[in-house]
Predict the 3D structure of the following.
Amino acid sequence: MKLLINGIPTAFVQGLREGGLDANGQAPVVRTAEGAGNPCRHCLGLIAPGEDKLVLSYRPFPVAQPYAETGPIFLHASDCMRYESDQLPFWFSYLQPALVRGYDRNDWIVYETGEVVEGTELEQHCRRILEREDIEYVHIRSKFNCFQCQVERG
């Protein structure tokens, strides 16, 4: 099975950079990145220390509903290219641990798919979850439950 991994949509990111509001109805906060733990959810690259980043609340679901988790994410403050690949970014292997869970066509969590895994095992777990017919997509999240990306069948 081929995977499809994309960063969050460019139009949404551009809207935020132009003054749009986040999932909480607030403008993103601009901060200077410090250290190595600043992943951009658009390009899925790491924001270098010293670069400006946007900090905001994000809901990776089309509508609010009981299972539509909202949480903090980072974005490059300046333009970057949306990640589109059939491979996870190399640095995901350093997520120790990571959370994976599948969602159905109603965007509800399918609980028995949720797992805490080593970053080096993410791809195989995503593939196994996506083998199920009742799963539409998988979310990868950090150990702090921060959304990293969505994985779909390619």
Notes: The first strand starts at residue 3 and ends at 6.
